[in-house]
Design goal:
By secondary structure, the protein is α/β, with parallel strands linked by helices. It contains 26 helices and 9 strands. The strands form 2 sheets. A 5-stranded mixed beta sheet has the order 1-3-2-4-5. The structure holds iron/sulfur cluster (SF4) (2 copies).
């Protein structure tokens, strides 16, 4: 694609990077075929190619974002399916990240939109606040009908209340150890990302990862002070906030690399993994953090990626259960991890089934299911329909957002008179069980 940025514009590293990306697009349109929003809406401006044109026009013309651009960029899931399909290697992720930050700087959203976004940014990345928000949501659930009719923000508030679980698992006890020693001789030492939302909603995921890694001779450290990776606010274009979260984690992990030594930084939420692997790019021009960020990114590994490099013993409990494996977009498109989780599950004695339209997003996409509840609902219904057709005993995936989204899809089907919902768990919970850990709660119940 031909571009006409001025030298002054290209002096800005973010603009220079976007210009380079825009130049690689050859308008072929192959990406439209695999874009979920184009699939649902059939509008060129809701396809990757259409959005690329809109972003080019906005950035090149140095225009404030228009309501039209904002509408179509907001509808993008950042699922990155287009990146997998693109034969020219267009780095859509870095382009849309830049465009979202540009929008936040140049566009004034409606009061309702601003309020919902501020609420999400202020609560989700902070464990204690998120826990308090879920408790408040439990009391507000009966008011969903009234709140859902509020102008501007009603459907989003209703989506938040719908997604909030009825109960939360117990909070990790204060003074819990930060280092989990390997059983037997130590073969490796890794840091595990605790993160923000996941340890509140489903602490059993990281507990399963720690148990299994320890049994395999890997010492696990939860680096003191580590927190949200910044992905949730990054996808809302809140650059200052996402960089602050990322910078904090980089310093914390770098300290751990320098003192105790780390063989990897292991992540059990693929949405977070995609962002942490991008820290090197995010801080490429930061004199203080560029080298440290690149080091952290180089060590970042999804749990399935890390386990695939280890020698796993024979499964102690080959259950023979049929597992529908849902590959999160951040796993397959963001990190290009496709076969590893399925191979691990098969090796552990599960019958693994692929899901039709596996490349299409389930609609979770960070906070997309709150900000775009209608489109997210359509994608959820489509996804759970495909999963249901595999007749699974259990559904496995590697991202907490997808777990919540798909579980809600199945719960809705059951409420509408469908069959009892299958348990939806993290891949690591099944692997831990197969190699000697406890049966995941949802699976045990069935
Ligand atoms: S597939 Fe790639 S090169 Fe073709 S239009 Fe889409 S982004 Fe551009
Ligand atoms: S990231 Fe996903 S939703 Fe956005 S343009 Fe690409 S394929 Fe479409």
């Amino acid at each position: 694609m031909q571009t006409n940025f001025t030298p002054a514009q290209l002096a800005d590293p973010a603009m220079a990077s976007s210009e380079k990306i825009l130049r690689t697009c050859v308008h072929c349109g192959f990406c439209t075929a695999t874009c979920p929003t184009y699939l649902l809406l059939g509008d060129e401006l809701d396809s990757p190619r259409g959005r690329i044109y809109l972003m080019k026009d906005m950035l090149e013309g140095q225009k404030p974002a228009s309501p039209e651009v904002v509408t179509h960029i907001d509808r993008c899931l950042s699922c990155l399916s287009c990146m997998t399909t693109c034969p020219s290697g267009v780095h859509y992720m870095h382009l849309v990240d830049h465009a979202r930050a540009y929008i936040e700087k140049t566009y004034r959203r409606s009061p309702g939109d601003r309020l919902v976004r501020a609420l999400l940014a202020a609560t989700l990345p902070h464990r204690a606040r998120f826990r308090a928000a879920i408790t408040a949501a439990r009391f507000a659930k009966p008011l969903k009908g009234v709140l859902g009719t509020l102008p501007f923000m009603g459907p989003r508030l209703a989506a938040m209340l719908d997604l909030a679980p009825a109960a939360l698992p117990a909070k990790a006890r204060a003074g819990r150890p930060r280092i989990f020693r390997a059983s037997g001789a130590r073969k490796a030492r890794v840091a595990l990302l605790e993160g923000c939302v996941q340890p509140v909603l489903t602490p059993s995921i990281n507990e399963a990862a720690i148990r299994l890694l320890n049994r395999l001779g890997v010492e696990v450290v939860l680096a003191a002070g580590e927190g949200c990776c910044g992905a949730l606010v990054h996808h809302m274009g809140r650059k200052a906030s996402s960089h602050a979260f990322a910078a904090h984690n980089i310093e914390v992990w770098h300290e751990e690399i320098e003192t105790g030594g780390l063989d990897a930084i292991v992540i059990t939420a693929s949405g977070c993994g995609t962002t942490i692997k991008d820290y090197g790019f995010m801080f490429r021009n930061d004199a203080k953090l560029a080298v440290k960020a690149a080091r952290v990114s180089a060590l970042a590994k999804d749990i399935s990626e890390y386990l695939s490099e280890l020698e796993l013993p024979a499964s102690t409990r080959p259950s023979g259960l049929t597992v529908a494996y849902h590959s999160a977009c951040s796993m397959q498109h963001g990190q290009k991890i496709i076969d590893e989780p399925k191979k691990l599950l098969r090796g552990a004695g599960f019958k693994v089934k692929d899901v039709a339209e596996g490349h299409i997003c389930c609609g979770s996409a960070g906070v997309y299911n709150i900000l775009q509840p209608e489109l997210a609902g359509q994608l959820r219904e489509r996804k759970t329909g495909h999963i249901a057709r595999t007749k699974p005993d259990v559904v496995a995936t590697g991202n907490i957002g997808c777990i919540t989204q798909i579980a809600k899809g199945f719960a809705d089907r059951a409420k509408a008179g469908g069959p009892a919902p299958p348990p939806v768990v993290h891949t690591i919970e099944l692997l831990d069980w197969a190699f000697g850990g406890p049966c995941p709660e949802g699976v045990a119940k069935t």
